[in-house]
Amino acid sequence: MAKKKEEPAKPAATQLIFQAPSLPTPKVERPSKKAEAKPERKGRERAKKEAPKEKPKAKTAAKKEEDSSTRVEAKRQRRRESRDPGRRRSTVTQSEFLARRESVDRKMIVREDDGRFQIGVLEDGLLVEHYVTQSQSVSIIGNVYLGKVQNVLPSMEAAFVDIGRGRNAVLYSGEVDWEAAETGNQPRRIELALKTGDQVLVQVTKDPVGQKGARLTSQISLPGRFLVYVPAGNMSGISRKLPEGERARLKQILKETLPDDAGVIVRTAAEGATEEQLRLDIERLQMQWEEITRQAESSKAPMQLHSEPELLVKIIRDVFNEDFQQLVVSGSNATQIIRNYLATVAPDLVERLVEYSDSEDIFDYFRIGDQIVKALDRKVYLPSGGSLVIDRTEAMTVVDVNTGKFIGSGGNLEETVTKNNLEAAEELVRQLRLRDIGGIIVIDFIDMIQAANQEAVRRRLLECLSRDRTKNQVSEITSLGLVQMTRKKIGVGLLETYSETCECCGGRGLVIHDEPRFKAQEVQVKKGKKKEKPEVKKVVTGEAADALKSVVNKIASAATQEAGQKASKEPEELLNQVLEALPEPEEKPTRKPRRASSIIRKVKGKK
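^ thats the sequence. predicted structure below, dont judge the formating
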């Protein structure tokens, strides 16, 4: 065999490296992951060092929130929620706008009676709004006053202002015009903007109610026929109830006619208004503002600088527009006032004015009085048989929806409940407008399982509220089936107009006694004891009645005989004739016993 070639010997140094494991190896610090991340740690340390620079900003922001007014922050929060795309109303198309107008037959009814004006708004024959005023008591909403600050309460974030109307009015910090108030870089707190004795230009937003004084704002706005003029405003808005094409046209007109130092809010009544009409409206309101500022500079507080027209003209200006088919007026004075105003402001609407001249009362003719009486009741019945129960408390108004006699027409319980809730939503909005209910409103709809049905009810509620001029906001349906909404309260409600507080109970509906009162216990009737039937004296048949009638006639004829002629028969004989004429009572047949035990008892009794 061939011998293998011998491998050459390796050098000794190489052999020593691989064959010396017992020698102590030097400790070498290998670069660990932590050591490799040192540059990143430096970066992080720099970031941590730079982070504290942002903390002072957060602290200053939090400090600003603490220093600013709670009412101002609440107002900002409500505005942010209204800007939420989910809550924001979608724009109205032209077809939807025309369909909404044509689907409802609107009429305005005005009655004049002893210096008092009553106004009713009818939609499809149903009363939805009611206004009443007297010449002695005029609303002060919209009036502009030069007031004098009497007291500032920082803890309440409010100031009490004397406007010359007896009770002091209240101005909250959320209604202060902070751009006009010279506070500098200081936080927006009312004690920094107003001091006791200062003169302030204010406008009334709510009439005094009960123990509460009038509510004020220093953000002045002057309403006109087609728009609302905001002197110190830098923004303009257009009603969302107008279609998108009309909004774009009005926006283009405002760019050319609106001054730079003022803002406007375009009303729904501006639909179809020409550029000349809008320009004249702006110029007229601008002249009013110049007159107010001129009087404020030369007057001493408290003093009234501007007053709104009477309620009749105000309602015609704000409510009556192209959506109404007729304006029916009863009373020569009211007709003349409305005709003069429409001829000046809206000549195209004069042809819709109708003077009522019948002898019958106009409210009775349109059945408005009956609807007012029903609206004053606590319970409202729905056409299908359901009902609404409306209870007003100090904090809120609670509405309970009941099915009542409504049992549905086929389907299941969910369908029946949904139909009842949809009908209740329409009637509820009508009651809110008619009764002028404001503040917090909680509606307890009947529980619905499907989310689609809940959304349908909420959508129907929003659709009906789109006809309401008063500002409102509706939240989502809660897990308990409750809908929470708010509606701005402006004037006195229908119930307060037609009622007064009871002197006995103070409006509670209860009479409180000094001692406990217990109801009398009901006497329980024993089952074994039967009630005694009333005893019938005698039953007379038809034949016996005829016989008795003939006898009585004979007696009457005998009594009318000539005087001096004696009766041939004595009274006893007449009485005997009457008794003989009466039929003999028939004997009732004895009832045969059905049980053997009763037969045995009878037999034993005979024995």
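The longest helix spans residues 38-67.
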